[in-house]
Design a protein that fits this description.
The protein is 11% helix and 14% strand. By secondary structure, the chain is an alpha/beta fold. It has one domain: Ribonuclease Inhibitor (Leucine-rich repeat, LRR (right-handed beta-alpha superhelix), Alpha-Beta Horseshoe). A seven-stranded parallel β-sheet has the order 1-2-3-4-6-8-9. InterPro entries: Leu-rich_rpt, Leu-rich_rpt_typical-subtyp, LRR_dom_sf, LRR_domain-containing.
């Protein structure tokens, strides 16, 4: 099995035995009642897409950094309050953390080797919670931060913003 979709089923837990789905590339389990995930999921070595939006996750799953083929991670609409240091090892190109309760973010997010899209809309971030290194020295070319505890226009004065805008603009030009 390569794709597994279990959206909107009131699922409150997933079994450790799911780690035996060694060929699984896409797991979608949105709109359920998951509050945590088994550490054994770190063994889903072929996983490319993980969509867990609209659950009850309160912690960023630390085992995500063990999944080296991961491209897209959607943890939006959960209860995550902090993005921990281990995020720096995440290999995904897109990380969606919209509509959580994030007030703290490790500067290690800037170390993600492939991260290009980081969505942090409608969280509890202050402007000083956005790491300077993320703006100045990362691969992120789309940083979505609308709906946090600062005015978007104030971001323009933050150190590293010009470097971020160069990446953002270069990406937009490539699209046309």
């Amino acid at each position: 099995m390569k794709h597994l979709t279990m959206n909107n089923n009131k699922i409150s837990s997933l079994p450790d035995s799911m780690c035996k789905l060694s060929k699984l590339e896409s797991l979608q389990c949105s709109g359920n009642q998951l509050s945590k995930l088994p550490e054994s999921f770190s063994q889903l070595s072929n996983l490319r897409t993980l969509v867990l939006s609209g659950n009850r996750l309160s912690a960023f799953p630390r085992w995500l950094s063990a999944l080296k083929h991961l491209d897209v991670v959607d943890l939006s609409r959960n209860r995550i309050a902090e993005v921990p240091d281990c995020v720096g090892d995440l290999t995904a190109t897109e990380l969606n953390l919209n509509q959580n309760q994030i007030s703290m973010m490790s500067e290690n997010v800037a170390n993600c080797p492939r991260l290009k899209v980081l969505r942090l809309e409608e969280n509890c971030l202050q402007l000083n919670s956005i790491p300077t290194k993320l703006l100045a020295d990362s691969r992120v070319s789309l940083l979505a931060v609308e709906g946090n505890l600062f005015e978007l226009k104030d971001m323009q004065d933050k150190e590293g913003y010009e470097a971020y805008m160069e990446r953002y603009t270069a990406t937009k030009i490539k699209m046309f």
